[in-house]
C-alpha cells in the first residue's frame, strides 16, 4: 500500500472511529436528534426483520458500532472497499438526523448545520472514491470481462483448430480412396 493511500485512509477514518467509539459508549445524547429518522426507519425494520430491535438507542448504538468497526478496518487496510461502503451507508442517516438545516429558523444554527451537512457530503464523496479504488489492480468487473474474453478467444481457437484438422482428415481420406489398392 502506498504511503499516501495509507495516510488518507487513516485521516478519513479518524472521524468515524472517534465518533463511533464515543456514540457507542454514550448513545443517549444522540437519541433525541436521531428519533425523527429512527421513527421513519423502525416500521421498515419491523416489517422486514421483526426480530431486530428498532428502538432509537439501539439503532444509534448499531450505527456507532458499524462506524467504529468499519473505520478500524478502513484505517488498517483490511477490506477497505466494503468498509468504505459501510461507512458511506452509516453517514447518510447520521447526516440527515444530525444536520437538518432545512428545519432551522435561526440563521446561525442553519448555517452551522449547512456547513456540517456539506462537510459530511465531502466525506461521503471521499468514501465513494475509496470504495471504487482498486489500488491500481484490476477490479472484479475488469477481471471477469477479461476472463470471458480470454475464454471466447480460447473457444474460437479450438473451433478453428478442429475445423482445420477436420479438413486435413477429409483430404487424407479422399487421397486414400484415390490410391489404387
Number of domains: 2
**Fraction of residues in helices?**
over 70%
Biggest pleated sheet: none
The helix tally amounts to 6
Strand proportion, as a percent range, falls in under 5%
Low confidence ranges? none
Shape: elongated
The end-to-end distance, rounded to whole angstroms, is 74 Å
Structural class designation: mainly alpha
Task: Walk me through the structure.
The chain has 181 residues and is an all-alpha fold. The protein has two domains: 3-132, no CATH class; 140-181. The chain has six helices and no strands. The longest helix is centred in the last third of the chain and has 39 residues, at 140-178. The chain is elongated. The termini are far apart. The model has no long low-confidence stretch (mean pLDDT 90).
Structure summarized in a few sentences:
This protein has six helices and no strands. With 181 residues, it is mainly α. α2 (31-48) packs across α3 and α2 crosses α4 (80-98).
Features:
0% strand, 181 residues, 2 domains, mainly alpha
Task: Set out the fold topology.
Elements: H1 3-25, H2 31-48, H3 56-76, H4 80-98, H5 107-132, H6 140-178
Helix pairs in contact: 1-3, 2-3, 2-4, 3-4, 4-5
